[in-house]
Structure formats: structure tokens, C-alpha cells
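fold-stage: in
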Amino acid sequence: MVRSIKASNLKDHAEIAACLRRLSTHKAELEAKHPTMDKLCSMSQDLLFSVKNKEVASKLEARLDSFAQRWDRLVQSLEMNISQVQLSSTVSTTKQSEMTHSGTVTVTKVTTREKVSALRHTRESPPPQKKRQVVVDSELRKRFDVDFTEVHSYMTRGEAILQSPEFSVSRKDGSIQELHDKVQAIDRERPEKYRKLQEATRTAQTLVEQEGSRADDIAQAADQLNQRWAGFCVLLADRLTWLAYQTKVLAFYSLYEQSEQAVDSSDNWLKVQAPPASEPEPLKVQLDRCREEVARLSSLQPQVDLLEKQLKELKDEKEGEEDPSAFLDADITAFKEHYRKVLEDLRARERQLQLVLESLPPARYKETISTLLAWLQQCEAKLSIPSTAVTEYPIMEQRLKDLQVLRKDFTLHTRTMAEKHKGFCC
């Protein structure tokens, strides 16, 4: 409706007056609806606070924000149209004055000197002071309305977020990034809106000084806006503090969970390990893997100390309030004991594997044993020939030579084995 009113390029005085009356009527209707708008915003905030469904609350918040922006645009459009009409009226009045002045000069050319002097006196006289003061007051009221609406809309949108039910629920996991970003956006806008509030306050003071009791409504509106701003800033500071503390809590429990998982992983690994191998190579693999697990778990010691420090700081911040242990229920003492026990069991496993590896015979001893076993197999094969086969002298003579060679070899291997065993034991 406001957009349908032609507010520019108006030349006819009657048309200008009619347009100005229509805009004034709409402005009066809009001002009459302002308390209803405030009540709607308050009811919407109560509704947002009571809604538990995050998705529904987000949609309601978006609709409220969209409606507030439409209200702001309507107010600005109305004020802009009134300014254009007033400007058209001023231009039209000026042109008529110039035409009247030109005609008067033409007529006074044939009049007496007294009439010319009177005309000059009329032309040089200043415009009425009262009319100019009314225009100034109107501009001040218009400026106040714009600043008031902007600050009011900002606080309405901000309170819808700051009074979200999410701030009443503490959490140990999940993410508050979306909520954090919204509050930070409100805080970034605050300095600019505070400047607008100061401008509105100064404008209200100027109007009170110029209009007196006629500006009581402006003074009352400015006072209420300042009181609401003070409460809004307290609420914003409280939410920023809540977000900072909640961020620390989430960081603590994230580190606590990671550390617990690391200790449990080492404990489970230790439970499924096979006994020490009897061969050097697989035993070395077992030892190397155990050393890696010991090093990994030992590196958690700084995190364990940090967890204990963080938990103390979180509880100290809530000192004087309700028992923080009801929420911060992480049992650091039990966790540290579990960590110490698993680390000690890993180190005991490492020592056991090292001792077994050191007790295994060296490689040269194993080679000697293998050689001896091969020789024994050969001897057994030669001695397994049945004695009934010895029926001829040449065969008997050959068998005797073979036995003598075996005896000689046996004596040699016995001496070598004794030396190897002595060297191994030493």
C-alpha cells in the first residue's frame, strides 16, 4: 500500500497535500501497531524458549527474523516517502514564491516609491521561525524512529537466539559451533547498534529540550530502550561466558576419551599376546612390537597430567555454585591408576622378551648342532647294514675300514662338540 503511493515528481499543491495526508494516516496506523509488534516479539521469544525441537525452533526463529526485517523496511519506506513528499512541497512552495515575486516586481515598476519600498521590505523579511522549527522537530523525530527501530529489531533478533533452550543444557560431547557462530555474530554487531542507541538517546534529549512535555513519549521510549539494552548486554555477556566454559568442557572430555581409548587399546593388545617365541627371529619381532607399544603409551604422560590440571580448573570456575562433580564426573584417579598398571605390564613384557632373547644359543652353536645331527644320521645309515650280510672276506675287510673311519670321526666330533659347549657356557 505504501509503495503504491506516488511520492516523487509531484507538482500540484493539492496532489502533494493529499499524498502527505495518506502517508500520515499510514504512519499513524503503523505507530498504533507498534505495541502489538512488541507483544508479538515477546510471545515469539516465549514460544522459542518452550520449544524443545531444535528444527522447529530454528524455523520459528527464521520467521520472526523475516517479519522483523519486513517491519523495518516498511518503516523506512514510509519515512522515505514522507521525506520525498515534504521535499516536493518545499520545491513547489519555492517556485510559487519566485513566480509571485517576479509578478510583483513587474507591477511595482508603475507604482509609487513607497510601494516599491514595502515590497523590498516584504521580500527581505525572514520566513516564520515557527514553521522552520516544526520541520526541524519532524526531522529529529524521524531520525529517532529510524534509530529506535534498528536497535529494537537487533535486540529482538538477538534475544530469540540468546534465550534458546540449548543454553540450559550442558554437554560432554557433540558440537556447539553453530550456536557459537550465532552468538559471535550478535556480539560483532553490538558496537554499531550501541552507537545507534547513543544517537537515538541524544536525539530524544534534543526533542525534550525543544518540545518540552510534548516529547514525553519520545523520552519514555528512549528510557525503555536503554533499560532493555542494559539487560540485553548482561544476557549476551552471560551467554559468551557459557560458551567459553562449555568449549573448555568439550575439549577436556574429548582429550579424556582419546586417552582412555589409547590405554584400553594397549591393555587389549597385551591380553592377546602369545608366549615368547623359541626362535630368535620371531622373538625379535615380538620384542620390537612391545617396545613400540611401550613408547606409544609412555608418550601419553603429558596428556594425563594435562587432564588432571584441566579438571581442577573447570571445577574451580564453578566453585560456589552447585556441586561441579555432578557434571564433571571424570574419575582421573582411577584413570591414572589404570594407565600406570598397563604401562608397567608392558614394560614387564618387554623385560621378559629381552631375557628370553639373551638366553637363546648363538647362531654358530646352532650350526654345529645341525652338522652333528647330519653326521649322526649318516653313521646310523652305515651301521644299519645287517651283520648276516658279512659272508665274504673283502666285504668284511671293507666294513672294518668303515667302522674305523666312523670311530675316528666320532672322536673328532666329540672333541669339537666339547669345545663349542664350553665356549657357549662361558
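fold-stage: in (second)
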Amino acid sequence: MMAHLEVQVLFGASVGGRSGGVFRDEFGRWFLGFARFVGRCDVLIVELLAIHDGLLQAWVSGYSRVELESDCLEAVRIITSSSSALDGNALVVSIKELIGREWSVVVHHIGYVNNRVVDMLASRDRGLDVAHTLFSGPPADIASIVEEELAGHASTVGEVDGIR
């Protein structure tokens, strides 16, 4: 089974970090979303937490192929070993261990515009605590955007690089 995973982080100095992600199949159909309020933390760490959360959920769900997209170039560089930043960090080590398991993980850096749905998930911080909130279907306020993207009407302009 193949999963397409997009992650996004929103960050504000007064509010802290929030992350979200969405899993889609190879045709762009939604099958799981998640959001988390992290609190005050470095934005790069929040991005790495979102990547870790998504990869762990994909592994537990039994997916054998994952295409991971992030709009954070530094996070992509760190987890694809093209950057030595945060070498030895437990979170980075855990992400690299997940990527190295018996499955196929491809990592892409994408432009911000490609993450509209995930951006809206990450902004859903009301009522969230540090635990994950899982969404088996798109929340009502973003369902139309999910449908637009599925139909191919949404903008998908972005740069892709950083493949594992």
C-alpha cells in the first residue's frame, strides 16, 4: 500500500507551534489527517515532530511506501542526511530510524502553496493538547478544498527536490 504524506507547521511567538499532516492515496484521496498543538518550541523541532508523527502513523498503519512532502527545506536536508545540523538529536535519530526500516520512503521539499489543506489542519489548535487529534475524514471547513485538489482545480505549483 502506498501513502502520500504532507506535513505543515504553523508557528507564532505568542502561541507556539502547531503541526498537521494528511495522508492521501496515489489518487489524492484523503484517508487520514492529524493535528497537534506543540506549544512554545523551535519551529524546526515542530516540523521534525510533524514528520516523525506522520512517519510513525504510516508505519503503524502498515504502509509499505510513503511519499513525504514538507515545505521546510532545512528539515528535508536534515532527514535526508544532506545537512549535519542536529546530528545526534534524539528526534532526528528516530526519524532516520523510521526512514531506514523495511519500507520505501521518498522525501520531497515542496513549495508552501502545495500545503493548503495541511496548513488548515495545522491551524486547528482550538481544543487540541499535545496529544494527536486524528481526522478519519476531512473536517467540514476544508472538505471543499480537498475536493478541489482531488479534481485537479487547486494550484499545485511548487519546487520538488531532496529525494532520499
